[in-house]
Amino acid sequence: xxxxxxxxxxxxxxxxxxxxxxxxxxxxxxxxxxxxxxxxxxxxxxxxxxxxxxxxxxxxxxxxxxxxxxxxxxxxxxxxxxxxxxxxxxxxxxxxxxxxxxxxxxxxxxxxxxxxxxxxxxxxxxxxxxxxxxxxxxxxxxxxxxxxxxxxxxxxxxxxxxxxxxxxxxxxxxxxxxxxxxxxxxxxxxxxxxxxxxxxxxxxxxxxxxxxxxxxxxxxxxxxxxxxxxxxxxxxxxxxxxxxxxxxxxxxxxxxxxxxxxxxxxxxxxxxxxxxxxxxxxxxxxxxxxxxxxxxxxxxxxxxxxxxxxxxxxxxxxxxxxxxxxxxxxxxxxxxxxxxxxxxxxxxxxxxxxxxxxxxxxxxxxxxxxxxxxxxxxxxxxxxxxxxxxxxxxxxxxxxxxxxxxxxxxxxxxxxxxxxxxxxxxxxxxxxxxxxxxxxxxxxxxxxxxxxxxxxxxxxxxxxxxxxxxx
Length: 471
Known about the structure:
Rossmann fold; 15 helices
């Protein structure tokens, strides 16, 4: 009996849904460490989705210790846990439950203390959680101790971010960068990962010079790291050659940076019609995309979309993605895109500053683009005013894009624009077509077989029109 194509497709889809792997149930654990004059008994409290308390910038969950600064706004523990919830969702997990642990200082053995760890283990077991995700970086010994206590797989924030990067890497370059970061993360965590990691080869066919399995595995990882680094070095060389060819022509590069999910890819598509992936999930964009756009002055500019930043971005990722982020370092102008509708906009902007500082790009000329103003209420939108350094837009609704392009045009020094008078013979059709495409023409007059024009033209075009310029 014949089956229609649509019915057959529906059956295949349903079968794949039934037989596909179910999302893992994740139990989230946050830690709020606050130093108080009088030591208080730590408390463990359930957090309901969306619950928020008064912002406390003294929370040590805000920034890495190396970058603590009283002037930089920080995330509260509740806000940090909410972000972890979004990250876990981007990794494909179902949230089974959450706990927030408040302590005066982290426990060196288990981070949260053995008593509280027993409570967390019981709560996770009661909701059939497949894994525990800690909103904190765990040392190798802490991770082993926690796993022994809870008998459930345990990952930390860095491991979760690496997993999301691995899911979204599409190009060979992106996959290499993620693999390098994962290998560097894994290396110090080999010890104690099961008895097989520390056994001496002693059976038939396994005898050797006495090297432990741990040392063998470590040697293999070092060898793989060197191989990946060599391949990434080839990528870096190729990218440098491409950049050299681009820089031989006076075309400025404008790099989009910002917190993950600030709308960079949506803005990139709105300006270039490139059609790159737009997604509300975190780190949807990993692979860099560069497209040319024509500015109001008719200058050509290269626009570069980059990976989003995040609080406590793992250093291994910053190092691994250095080849990609070199576009930010070499850009003539950085567009810092932030979510104007987010209550955490100031905290997110502070984290972007930290990563730009680490990339040594914090002194670059910058234009702040506040995106998603369509989500604001009408009174909030009416209170916004553009300045020379801040432009308010909605990439999704194409609001403010003309003003943004005009502002970018004014800020770029490459290929400067000059107003000139030109006298071009009418038979020079190719020259007239070039002027029509690459200059802003203000007036045009025809007489005696000549076209007299007054136009604004980039220096790169004027060099080819030198013989037609009227002094």
